[in-house]
Design goal:
The chain is α+β, with helices and mostly antiparallel strands. 25% of the residues lie in helices and 15% in strands.
Length: 424
């Protein structure tokens, strides 16, 4: 008897056999609102010529994996840097340590630097999130997507609200991190192979910027600095060990690589922290790095002006993509983010000096071909300045009139005999 596992909460099939019509209709109805936090009136369901969620890893990436001593089924970890508008894919090499595989330019991210606080604030989340197969959405209206799992335990301990915060394709965002279709297909393929290889969940580390002394000095007056320093601790643990940090929450704060002295106790996100210890080699190295960065930041604070604390801007995006160019899939990509202009009273604003991508309304396969040839990323426009489903407001009429996408073969991960999940 084959045991299957439901793939997400948004309409995936359990096997290659077709759903009964009634079940298909029910699943399609759930799927229609799954990405509502990132959707607006401009969104459409795109058709593809095949099961996009089952596309193989590209030959170029397979060659890169081999060159870097990585197996396609080894675990992955994602790191997001808002200000730089970059998403990094790290993968375990054959020495058992995470190493950078690729850096992707982010098309769009929403809001300001800082965490998401409440429904409708259009902020893209910051923090540490765990992505299981159930959070992957092969039937996304935004090509492909995965749910970040916001709010996590830390967010809930602080009373933060919101839902359906995604990393998705289609290059447009209202509260999410938007990639090109080709990028999210590659990310999806890599994560699928890792799940198939036995990884039960992969970690996403979402930061406001790269946690350098210079950036700490630049943003020294930001009211989120205490939160960001806490995130930096987790970043330091990862950079020191090249291992995924173990994340727990107690006293409404993150703690990293903490081992309980009394195994019978548990971490309570809102309660007092139980007694724990951090492995000495990690604690010593992290303390040394923190002290060195703090000294450097103090020096730079006397030399660099403090970054302005902005309001009313609607996020940013990679300047190469916003200018209609795709820098490609680069494992050493470093760029500066281009913020969107302040929103007008009517919605997302635009200016001649900061081009905002315009919606192409064309087939995703055509867009992917253009990306691959570096002829220019498809331009899309931020779809409004609200999160309709989160805010409890009616969905735009266009959304309810869309036809439901056909059931996809092999969309459900099937627990394999040796562990992991099969997507085939």
């Amino acid at each position: 008897m084959r045991v299957t596992k439901l793939y997400g909460l948004r309409g995936a099939v359990l096997s290659r056999h077709a759903f009964a019509p009634a079940r298909s209709a029910a699943i399609a109805a759930v799927c229609a609102v799954a990405l509502s936090a990132c959707m607006g009136a401009d969104s459409v369901v795109s058709s593809t010529s095949g099961p996009k969620h089952l596309q193989p890893i590209s030959p170029q990436t397979m060659a890169l994996l081999e060159a870097k001593g990585m197996d396609k089924s080894s675990p992955i970890l994602l790191r997001i840097f808002k200000e730089e508008s970059e998403l990094e894919i790290w993968k375990k090499n054959r020495e058992g340590k995470y190493a950078l595989l690729k850096a992707f330019p982010i098309c769009r991210w929403s809001g300001e630097l800082g965490p998401k606080i409440k429904t409708g604030d259009r902020q893209a989340p910051e923090g540490f999130y765990s992505i299981t197969p159930e959070l992957m959405n092969p039937r996304s209206s935004y090509y492909l997507s995965f749910n970040l799992g916001y709010p996590n335990e830390f967010d809930r301990a602080h009373g933060r609200t919101g839902s359906h915060l995604m990393v998705h394709g289609d290059c447009s965002s209202a509260g999410c991190y938007a990639m090109t279709d080709e990028q999210i297909r590659e990310i999806y393929a890599l994560s699928r192979e890792s799940f198939d290889g036995g990884q039960l969940a992969f970690q996403v580390q979402a930061f406001p910027f790269r946690m350098t002394a210079k950036n700490l000095a630049r943003h020294r007056k930001n009211p989120n600095m205490a939160f960001w320093r806490m995130l930096k601790e987790g970043s330091d643990h990862f950079e020191i060990t090249k291992q995924e940090p173990k994340v727990d929450i107690c006293e409404k704060r993150y703690v990293f690589n903490a081992h309980l002295l009394d195994p019978s106790q548990l971490f309570n996100p809102s309660g007092k922290c139980p007694e724990y210890e951090i492995p000495e080699e990690i604690a010593v190295a992290a303390r040394a790095k923190r002290n060195a960065d703090d000294r450097e930041a103090a020096i730079l604070a006397n030399l660099l002006p403090a970054a302005p604390i902005t309001t009313g801007r609607d996020g940013g995006g990679n300047p190469a993509l916003m200018a209609g160019r795709l820098p490609g899939f680069d494992d050493n990509l470093t760029t500066a983010s281009t913020p969107a202009p302040p929103r007008s009273a009517a919605g997302a604003g635009a200016s001649a000096s900061t081009p905002v991508p315009q919606s192409p309304r064309r087939d995703n396969e055509v867009k992917a071909s253009a990306y691959a040839s570096n002829g220019g990323a498809g331009r899309t426009q931020e779809a409004g300045d609200r999160e309709p489903e989160e805010a409890g407001e009616p969905q735009p009429a266009q959304q309810s009139q869309r036809s439901a996408p056909a059931a996809l073969p092999g969309a459900a991960p099937i627990r394999a005999a040796g562990g992991g999940f099969s997507f085939r």
